[in-house]
Amino acid sequence: MDNIVYVKEFGELPVNKKEILRYASAKETSIELDEKIDECIKEISLKSKVCFCEFPIKFYDDYIDLSFFKSQSKDLRKNLKDCSSIVLFCATVGFEIDRLIWRYSTVSPLKSLLFQAIGTERIESLCGAFNEYIKEEKRSLEKFTRPRFSAGYGDFPIEAQKDIIRVLDASRKIGVTLNESLLMSPSKSVTAIIGISDKNVCEDKKECEICKKKDCEYRRRNENT
Q1: pLDDT per residue as tens digits for the range 160-179
Q2: What would the pLDDT profile of 115-127 be if each residue is shown by its tens digit?
Q3: CATH number (domain holding residue 50)
């Protein structure tokens, strides 16, 4: 492993309107709402980027050495069981969504809400596309991936964001920064860890299934978790 941080750009990704409605907390759709979503989608032009790097990992009795960070998280340990390395990544769809959310916050609260939901759907779609990219890349080497795991999941502290942003040089690579409250800017950005293993275990398990935050307003309700 060369520990080089790579940057990958993604073009337009398929839009999932059902997810947009879910993130907007819309219980049902209508022709008017569907048209408004289309109107919002036509207004955006996103720059979807991911910076990433692979690191070897080692397990010890009371912590995991991720090379750039040591963690005592039991939930992360469970997720990375039998893994020999991780792909650490930071993904963003850029500042345009934030600007549109702010622009419409007073003149059209509905559009502001929809842009918020579209931004969430877009960053999740980007993370999904990157997951598939890494999955296929590793499969060609007869290796397998684990579901992505982010700081803030379970007992993996959100403070790990500082080390993740730092080691990926995310500010310079793709323009993602972290404030004192550990919130990322642009807001529609995600950092996560993907475990790499020689064993094919739970490769397609969804993130909601591994997250213990049962009261999340965006949690998928059709999953038995």
Answers
A1: 999 999 999 999 999 999 99
A2: 999 999 999 999 9
A3: 3.40.109.40
Residue with tokens 């073009």: 11
Q: What is the DSSP string of 74-137?
A: HHHHHHTTTEEEEEEEEEE--SHHHHHHHHHHHH-HHHHHHHHHHHHHHHHHHHHHHHHHHHHH
Give strand pairing partners of 91.
Answer: 50, 190
Q: Is 222's pLDDT higher than 50?
A: no
3-state secondary structure of 40: helix
Residue type, 192: A
Q: What SS3 state is found at 105?
A: helix
44: which 2 tokens? Answer: 């955006």
Q: Structural domain of residue 63, as residue ranges?
A: 6-210
Q: Position of tokens 């807001």? A: 187
In a domain, 21, yes or no: yes
- On whether the pTM is more than 0.70, the answer is yes
In a domain, 175, yes or no: yes
Per the structure, the count of domains in the chain is 1
Among residues 58, 9, 50, the alpha carbon closest in space to that of 168 is found at 50
Of all residues in the chain, the percent with pLDDT exceeding 90 is 82
CA atoms of 164 and 93, how far apart (whole Å): 18
Averaged confidence pLDDT in the chain: 90
Which residue, among 170, 167, 172, 211, has the nearest Cα to 189 in the 3D structure?
A: 170
Question: Hunting for tokens 């345009």 — which residue is that?
Answer: 96
DSSP H or E stretch at residue 167: helix 160-168
Determine the straight-line distance between the first and last CA of the chain, rounded to whole angstroms.
36
